[in-house]
Structures are given as structure tokens and as C-alpha cells.
Amino acid sequence: MPSSSFSCGFASIIGPPNAGKSTLMNALLDCKLSIVTPKPQTTRKRITGIYHDKQMQVVFLDTPGIMEPMQKLHEAMLLATRDTLRDADVIIAMLPFRKKEGPFDRDFAATLQNDWLKTSGKPIVAVFNKSDLVTLKEQSEAEAFIREAWNPAAVLSISALKGVNLPELLEALRPFLPMNQPLYPEDALSTAPERFFVSEIIREKIFLLYGREVPYSAEVVVDEFREQHENDPSRKDLIRCSVIVERDTQKQILIGHKGQALKKLGQAARTEIEELIGRPVFLELFIKVRPDWRKKHTLLKSYGY
Ligand SMILES: Nc1nc2c(ncn2[C@@H]2O[C@H](COP(=O)(O)OP(=O)(O)OP(=O)(O)O)[C@@H](O)[C@H]2O)c(=O)[nH]1
């Protein structure tokens, strides 16, 4: 039973592409909810993940990275980020440390403050991620700079990858979580349906297995998810997905010589989907070409943007 000192609320994680937002959410939840790849802009839609302990429940909203919109898809991604700020009780504004060109990007920090944080009217917890890449001195100088520039509710340096300062981050959020009862049951990990995670897993494998523009041009739609085990436990669940690309050449790359590349993609995705849902599945992937889908409003809408 939650105690009277229980806290619950929504925290949005916002920052540039590749800052480590998804890594942080996965580390806090101790499971892999958001896809993580070394390539920027892998997260396209907002993803919720729910953290629980005896004192608090935090519903984290992971967001697509903030960048200059180059096409309609990016505009839709940025709208998803704006929405999460509106829903947040507290915002985790993440800035990644880097090894080259100074410890962090001050220009981006200014943009984040002017275009996103100032107007949100929400308490800000400034988080420098990737603290493993810089010295302690660089960390405290960066923290002092942001304290002065943003006047946030709290500032701290963490390493999502190495698990450094994560309990401290949770404590920094606590004062801003307004509810004294949990919103979700203790075993709920996300508010998104299984289907969503299935498409995200396939998207992640595309990012990991293919080079150049193919991952950015690919979208995954789950056309059918038939839970056949319920009637007959010996039958595998059937999952049929379309992988949408923009050009025929991309389709050829996805399929590969004698279908070898597509086979590899299917195997990698199936293994992880089975881990996620805890049952064997039969995964079918169909590659479809939809020219310029990232620029077309109606297609974007039909893919959930
Ligand atoms: N050295 C170091 N690398 C990290 C840390 N956290 C994340 N990374 C790496 O940074 C890369 C990007 O991580 P993500 O979690 O996908 O970043 P993101 O901000 O969600 O990226 P987008 O999907 O582009 O918005 C991955 O290669 C991570 O392994 C950290 O604390 N230290």
C-alpha cells in the first residue's frame, strides 16, 4: 500500500538526438523499452515507461531528439515532443557531454532554453549525461554554467550507460511529482501496447543491420498480431508486418542477395520479440514501397504520426 509520503507524476526527457535519453529510460526501468542505437534520431514517437519503487511512481515520457525539421516527418516528431512537455510535471532537460569541441554544446543549450524550456512553465531538472566522457572538473564547471544560464530546479551529471547518479536523479524529480497515489499497477512497465514495441524492435534491427539512408527511410507497421496460443498453446503467435520504404532500391537493399538480408533481419527481430512477449512467434515481413512517405501528411498520419 502506498504510504502518505508517496509521490507520483509525469517526467519528460528532452534533449538533442543521441543524448542518451532512451538509454536513461531503459536504465531507470531496468529493462529495454526504448530502442537504442549509435545512430541519431532513432526515437520517432513518444514512448512511456513507468518506474516504480516504494516511495514513488514516475511515468517517463521519452521523446524524439530535438533538431531542425528537414521534412514533414521531423515536424511530426517535434510535435510529439511539444505534447510531452505539456503533459509533464517536471522536465528532464538532457545535455550530453562530449570529448571533442568542449565538454558540451553551449549553442544547443541556449536553443533548448529559449525555444523549449522557458515557454513550458514547468520545473526543469538539468541533466548532463555521459559523465564518463569528461573529468569531474569539467562536470562541475558545466553544472555551474547551466545553473547560472537556466536557473533550473536542480542540476546533475549522470552516466545512463554506467548507471552513475541515477538514484540522485530520481530524488531530484520527487519534489515535483504531485500525486500521492500510484496511477498504474506495480507491474505496468509502459502505457504503450505490445504491438508498438514489436514495430520498434524491428525498426531498431533495421538501424543496426543496414547502413546509410535505409533506416531513416524505413517505417514498420504491424498489420496483424494474432495471438494463436490462447486457443491452442502449441501454436505460435502470428505477427505480420509491413516495412515501408521510399524507393525500390531501398527495397532491394532490405531484401538483399537471395533474400539473405531480410532473413537476417527477421531472425534478429523475432528473437527479441519472443523475449518481449515470452512466447514463440511466427514473424512475416513484407517490404512495401511508398514513394516519399516521410513528406506525405496522410501517410504519416496512417503510420501514427
Ligand atoms: N559514453 C556514454 N555513452 C552513452 C551514455 N548514454 C548513452 N550513450 C550512448 O549514446 C548513444 C545514443 O543513445 P540513445 O539512448 O539512443 O540516445 P537518444 O537521446 O535516445 O537518441 P535519439 O533516438 O536520437 O533521440 C548510444 O550509442 C548509447 O550507448 C553514457 O552515459 N555514456
From TrEMBL:
Sites where the protein binds GTP: 15-22, 62-66, 129-132
UniProt region (G2), positions on chain: 41-45
Location of the protein in the cell: Cytoplasm; Cell inner membrane
Coiled-coil residue windows: none
Keywords for the protein's UniProt record, in alphabetical order: Cell inner membrane, Cell membrane, Cytoplasm, GTP-binding, Membrane, Nucleotide-binding, Ribosome biogenesis, RNA-binding, rRNA-binding
Membrane topology of the entry: Peripheral membrane protein
G4: annotated span: 129-132
GO BP field: ribosomal small subunit assembly
GO molecular function list: GTP binding; GTPase activity; ribosomal small subunit binding; small ribosomal subunit rRNA binding
InterPro entries per UniProt: G_ERA_dom (IPR030388), GTP-bd (IPR006073), GTPase_Era-like (IPR005662), KH_dom-like_a/b (IPR015946), KH_dom_type_2 (IPR004044), KH_sf_prok-type (IPR009019), P-loop_NTPase (IPR027417), Small_GTP-bd (IPR005225)
Region described as G1: 15-22
CDD domains in the record: Era, KH-II_Era
Sequence segments annotated as region (G5): 158-160
Role of this protein: An essential GTPase that binds both GDP and GTP, with rapid nucleotide exchange. Plays a role in 16S rRNA processing and 30S ribosomal subunit biogenesis and possibly also in cell cycle regulation and energy metabolism.
Family that this chain belongs to: Belongs to the TRAFAC class TrmE-Era-EngA-EngB-Septin-like GTPase superfamily. Era GTPase family.
PANTHER family for the chain: GTPASE ERA, GTPASE ERA, MITOCHONDRIAL
Name recorded for this polypeptide: GTPase Era
Organism per entry: Chlorobium luteolum (strain DSM 273 / BCRC 81028 / 2530)
